[in-house]
Every structure is written in C-alpha cells, then in structure tokens.
Design goal:
It is a single chain. By secondary structure, the protein is an alpha/beta fold. The protein folds into 2 domains: 62-219 and 448-541, Rossmann fold, CATH 3.40.50; 222-429, no CATH class. The protein is built from 19 helices and 14 strands. It has helices at 11-16, 27-39, 54-57, 119-123, 126-134, 159-167, 191-202, 225-233, 236-254, 259-265, 274-280, 301-309, 318-321, 342-354, 365-369, 386-397, 419-429, 445-448, 514-541, and strands at 4-9, 45-50, 69-74, 85-93, 105-109, 137-141, 184-189, 209-213, 220-222, 331-334, 338-341, 398-400, 460-465, 491-494. An 8-stranded mixed sheet has the order 3-4-6-5-7-8-13-14, with helices on both faces. A two-stranded antiparallel sheet has the order 1-2. Helix 5 crosses helix 19 (514-541) and helix 8 (225-233) crosses helix 9 (236-254). The radius of gyration is 25 Å and the shape is globular. The N and C termini lie far apart (66 Å). It binds 2-acetamido-2-deoxy-beta-D-glucopyranose (4 copies). Residues 76, 153-154, 435-436 line the site of one 2-acetamido-2-deoxy-beta-D-glucopyranose.
C-alpha cells in the first residue's frame, strides 16, 4: 500500500518569489511575470501527495529548524539624526557549529529575491556544505526590500550587510561571533555574487573571504551576449532551427502581407506590434538559465521546448525530421497563403499552448502581451515586486537583452529587439519623482568602477559556469583577461555549468554529479586553507 501524506503549504510565499535567478525583465517580461502571478494561487492550498513525491516539495516547505530571525537595522545608515529602524530577516544553520574552535560564519547573500528561496542552500546547498566542512555557522541574509525585509524609504548600500556582520548576536549562541573577531566567509550567486565580490573589496576587514559565483561584476547597457551563449551551447539542431525560424519570421514581418497569418500561427493574431510579437516568442529562451543539474529544482522547459520544435506534424513522419530546415518535404501550407518549415509550426504551437493560454478569459491579447500602454506598468503597491530588480536594472545594471549589434552575426532572437524596445520599460514604470529621476540609461559606471571583469583580491574566489548565459558579464567573460587559478585567488569554471551550479548541493556529496562534487571538494579545500591563514595571522598578532 502506498502511504499517502497530506502536506499543507502556503503558496503565498511562492507567489512572492520572483525567481531564484536573475531575471531579464523587458516590458514583455513584466507582462509574463504578472500572468504567472495570476496562476499561482495566492491562498494556502491543500495538496495530496504520494510519499514518493515528497522530495520534490522539500525545497518549498520550510523546515521548522529554519525559523526566520530578525536583525534591527537603521533605516538611514548615513544620517545618524534619523533613528528609525527596520527589521532585516535572516536564517541560521547551527547543526555543525562547534563553539570555541574559531569556526567561521558562512553567510549567503539573498540577492534579488525573497530570502525564503535561498533556504535550500542553507539546508543541503553550499552553506551547509561549507559549514559542515569547517564546523561553522551558516546564515542566509535577506536583501533589503525583497521578501519581508521591506523598509519604506529608499535604497542605500551594501553597508547593511556590513552592519549585520559587525553586530549580530545569534540566538542560542553565547560566543561573540561578530566580524572582524570571527572569520566571515561571504557567498553569493548571480547578482548576489557580484555583491559578494564587492563586499570583499569594500569591507576587507569584515569580509575575511568571499566566494562570487556567476558574479555579474560587469554591468552593461546592452547584453546581446546572453542569447548568444544559448545559441552557441544549445543542442546544435535546435539552435540551427531557432536561428532559421527567426530569420524566416523577420523576413515575413518585413513583407507585412503575411504577418497576420504568421501571428495567428502563434495564437496572437490580435497583437498589434510586431516587436511585442517577437518579444513574446523569445520567452522560452529565458528557461535556459533555469536549468539546474539537480532535477528536483531545475527546469526542464528549455529542453522540452527544443524537443517540441522537431515533433512530427500531421502526416509528416519522423524521416522528414532529419531533412534540412526549409526542405520542400518539411514545408507546411497554412491558411492565408503562408508556407513555412514545420519547426515554425511547432514553435507556434508551443507558444500558443504554454504562453498564450495564460491570458485569462475576458482579457484581450493586446492587454496580455502588448507593451505600449504605460499605465499597465504604473502600479506601485508592494505586490508589484518586479519593480524592485527592475529599478536596479534601470538605474545601474542595465542588461537589456537585444539582438547582436552586428546585423551579420547569427542570432536566435529577432532583429527587432533593440535597446529602445528593451529599455522603454524604465521610462514607462518610473515616472520622475520629487527626489529621484531614473536616468535615461543606467549609469553602469557605478557598478563597474568596483572592479568590473578584473575584480580581484586575495581570498576572493571566482566561480562560473561554462554555458551560463550570464558568463559574458562575469570575470570569465570572453572579454576578460585570463587568470591563474590559485588557492588564494581561486578562478574556476564548471564545465557545462549554467547559473551558479555550485550553490546547489545534495546531502551526500557522493550522490552529486562528478563536476559538481569536484567543485564542492575544491571549494571546501580552499576555504580550509584560508582558515589556516587566519590562524597564522592571529598567532603572529598574539606573539606566538
Ligand atoms: C534619536 O535618539 C537620540 C538618543 O536616543 C535622541 O537624542 C534624538 O533626539 C533622536 N532623534 C530623533 C530625530 O528622534
Ligand atoms: C533617500 O532618502 C533620504 C531620506 O532618508 C533622502 O534625503 C534622499 O534624498 C533619498 N534619496 C533618493 C535617491 O531618493
Ligand atoms: C563582540 O566583540 C567585538 C570585538 O570583536 C566587540 O566590539 C563587541 O562589543 C562584542 N559584542 C558583544 C555583544 O559582546
Ligand atoms: C555615473 O556614476 C559615476 C560613478 O558613481 C559618477 O562619477 C558619474 O558622474 C555618473 N554619471 C552620471 C551621468 O550621472
């Protein structure tokens, strides 16, 4: 008999989560985010699960071991005459902590999402792995404004993390573990990875060591390289079919006559703008970065999409599939005189089924997928959490994902996706305020002057994924100088790795795939070496 278990999970926290990954949020991205929220029920729901499926839920159910703790922060860090404070949320893992051993604190920066999304890293991921190896205390610190650490005034700086490290008293721990008296190792992945690198540079006395994984230390206004990584590393047949589909779609749109039947093929004959149309059909590509080596947390969407592109259609059989794109036997005639390769027919069917179907009854396609009505981006309630990361994008980080500026460069997104289109959301969503006006384009110098591709320091580890679409913005970019990989300055690439693959872990390292187990063992090794250096420098100070 199969054991049936009832599990109650609150979906409200899931709905809060933007995504565990750095998002590309163009105007269409915001539309799709909103539709996703509609489908994530805001009310707690009762699920019936087989015990065999329970592991898949583990990452969404918060174990009682990790209850939220709160640290009081000053609201305005620089103006001492303002006494207001807000509470910043954090969680700790003390399973492996051995008092009195000089054990470190391993802190994970929550980055641009609710800190709850990061709890798996405290439980089985990188924080647990390093805390276990060093008898340390693990911490996840929620980023100000995200999740529940919402202060009502404006953003200041990374100094909040510094204040936390220098002053926190962990409940249940008597030892004074504040920095700089205790070793703090600062970990971050993605945007938080850039923060980890910046923290090591800005607060060297508090941050003894830092690990910057998939760290986007290079801010860029145009980020066309993101899609180019996907083009270069996706399954070659899929990549070629995407490229040729997009070429075909662009030329059909150029000639206008057949653009309505083309849009109809994708289920959006009612969408006015061609650019809105091509940005809509770009959306499955965003699933590439959601791949994770652990199938319990990774998204299969990209691979499913690729597989769907080469499905037989109608009376076309499997042997037709191996013919070249555009071969007469692969062509399908459609109403309105349109005749296209079956990859495009499959592409249309996929978009219709997985994206267009999200548009609720009673809304027009224009309301769901149009991006030219400014008012749809002007809601400012605290529910509109897409505004948070987008604000950072519009002021300092950029990363507008456009087609390659060189028109002859191969591409898997439409040439119509240009900077004007991708960045118009900044002007639509942030009307000039009394105190602050979002600049016409982000000032990426603010980020890049902290080190950019060349950011380096002793005990700052740089870890990246070979096929991470964000790699072009990290010190492992093809534009960056090569470096040596040393214990003091680790510089490691995970073969076939996507976005911060080292952040995820399994309870037993032996169960991890070889490349992941290898990087984890290397990380444990260099952190342990760093800890030895601390002992040497302290012994020297104490005259031993
Ligand atoms: C802040 O607190 C200090 C001492 O606690 C007090 O003297 C001062 O008036 C307070 N300032 C404001 C603006 O409330
Ligand atoms: C942020 O808030 C402070 C008051 O706490 C204000 O003086 C400052 O002008 C604000 N800055 C921005 C960029 O809004
Ligand atoms: C912890 O130690 C630091 C010196 O490393 C000291 O400044 C701080 O006051 C101590 N905190 C507590 C609560 O004892
Ligand atoms: C951009 O930021 C840099 C560094 O903070 C600053 O020096 C520069 O004046 C800013 N540029 C503009 C146009 O605001």
């Amino acid at each position: 008999m199969r054991l049936r278990v009832f599990v109650l999970i609150s979906l409200s926290c899931l709905a809060q989560a933007i995504s565990p990954n750095l998002l590309r949020l163009g105007p269409q991205g915001v539309n799709l985010w909103k539709l996703e929220q509609l489908h994530a029920s805001p009310k707690p729901a009762l699920f019936v699960q087989d015990a065999s499926e329970i592991n898949h839920l583990e990452h969404t159910v918060i174990k009682p071991e990790f209850t939220a703790l709160w640290f009081e922060q000053p609201l305005d860090h620089f103006d001492k005459s303002i006494n207001d404070t807000f509470l910043q949320r954090y969680w700790i893992n003390t399973r492996h902590y051995k008092p009195g051993t000089g054990a470190p604190v391993i802190i994970l920066d929550g980055g641009e999402t609710s800190g709850e999304d990061r709890i798996p890293f405290l439980d089985t991921g990188i924080v647990e792995i390093l805390a276990r190896a060093t008898n340390g205390v693990g911490v996840v610190l929620e980023h100000r404004y995200y999740g529940e650490s919402i202060a009502t005034k404006n953003l200041t700086t990374d100094s909040l993390s510094a204040n936390f490290m220098a002053n926190v008293q962990f409940p249940g721990i008597d030892e004074n573990l504040t920095a700089p008296g205790t070793i703090w190792i600062y970990y971050g992945g993605s945007y938080a990875g850039a923060r980890a690198a910046h923290m090591r540079v800005l607060y060297p006395e508090l941050v003894y060591g830092a690990i910057a994984s998939s760290a986007v230390t290079h801010a860029a206004i145009i980020n066309w390289e993101y899609m180019d990584i996907i083009r270069r590393y996706a399954d070659p047949v899929c990549s070629e079919h995407l490229q040729k589909s997009i070429e075909t779609i662009d030329s059909i749109l150029d000639h206008r006559i057949l653009s309505t039947p083309l849009k109809a093929l994708f289920g959006v004959h009612g969408l006015k703008s061609d650019t809105d149309f091509v940005s809509l059909i770009e959306s499955p590509l965003g699933a590439w970065q959601a791949k994770v080596w652990d199938p319990a947390v990774g998204s299969p969407t990209f691979d499913n999409f690729c597989a769907a592109l080469s499905k037989p259609v109608g009376r076309k059989t499997a042997d037709v599939m191996s013919l070249e794109f555009g071969h007469p036997k692969r062509m399908i005639s459609l109403p309105g005189g349109l005749k296209v390769d079956l990859a495009i027919v499959n592409y249309g069917a996929w978009i219709k089924e997985h994206i267009v179907s999200r548009c609720p009854e009673g809304s027009t396609q224009e309301e769901c997928f149009g991006t030219y009505d400014d008012t749809q981006y002007q809601g400012t309630s605290l529910k509109e959490i897409w505004r948070l990361w987008l604000f950072q994008v519009c002021t300092e980080w950029g990363y507008f994902t456009t087609a390659p500026p060189d028109p002859t460069h191969p591409r898997i997104i439409s040439k119509r996706l240009d900077l004007e289109y991708e960045s118009k959301i900044c002007r639509q969503a942030y009307a000039p305020g009394i105190h602050f006006t979002v600049p016409p384009l982000p000032n990426v110098t603010v980020v890049n002057e902290l080190g950019d591709f060349d950011i380096a320091m002793d005990r700052l580890a740089i870890i990246d994924g070979e096929v991470d679409p964000w790699r072009p913005d990290t010190p492992h970019s093809d534009y960056a100088k090569d470096r040596e990989d040393t214990i003091l300055r680790p510089f490691k690439i995970i073969p076939n790795g996507v976005h911060h693959y080292d952040e995820y872990g399994l309870k037993n390292l032996e169960d991890e795939p070889p490349e992941i187990r290898k990087i984890h063992e290397e990380m444990i090794a260099f952190v342990k070496e760093w800890l030895k250096d601390w002992k040497v420098s302290r012994d020297l100070e104490e005259g031993k």
